[in-house]
Amino acid sequence: MGQLILSFTKVEVADKIRHMLEISGYRVYKVCHTAAESIRIANELDGAVIITGFKLTDGTVNDMFRSLPRSVGVIALLKPEQQCLIDEEEIFILPLPTNGQRLAGAVDLLFGGWQRKSRRKPPKRDEKETELVNKAKQLLMECNSLSEEQAHKYIQKKSMDTGMKLADTAKLILGME
Fold first, then answer.
1. What is the DSSP string of the chain?
2. CATH assignment, 3-111
3. pLDDT at residue 54 above 80?
């Protein structure tokens, strides 16, 4: 398993995140306060997950991500208004406020293989599953005035929170189960 790196400008924020992770059974390898320091540490490791906010003193999470080795995953803890500022699809966005359970779930997901090693996406869904997800997105878009991206993120979040596959979550939204 890789190492956990926290990258936050404020020490108190890093301490709070470290505490949430330790309660969930994770050990933080290093706390960094700049993007450059995080990149340097990540380059020394064989696989890591960096948990950060949007802005550090020397750049943004987007800037840092572009300089990281492929074996490093990134979780960005972001306020809702910051989420649209992420230009890299492979940065895992965890909305604030969050809790230890959601944070641990995101770390589990990245350590479970959804890292940048080969820059590939999670396995493709079959046609039936894709159709279910698209129908659920359409329903959410119509009923809740969401964009397609917002509807997809909603389904993803519910799937992560419940530990269910995306298609199974879509079935629940459509009232099929």
1. --EEEEE-SSHHHHHHHHHHHHHTT--EEEEESSHHHHHHHHHHSSSEEEEE-SEETTEEHHHHHHTS-TTEEEEEEE-GGGGGG---TTSEEEESS--HHHHHHHHHHHHTT-SSSS--PSPPPPHHHHHHHHHHHHHHHHHH---HHHHHHHHHHHHHHHT--HHHHHHHHTT--
2. 3.40.50.2300
3. yes
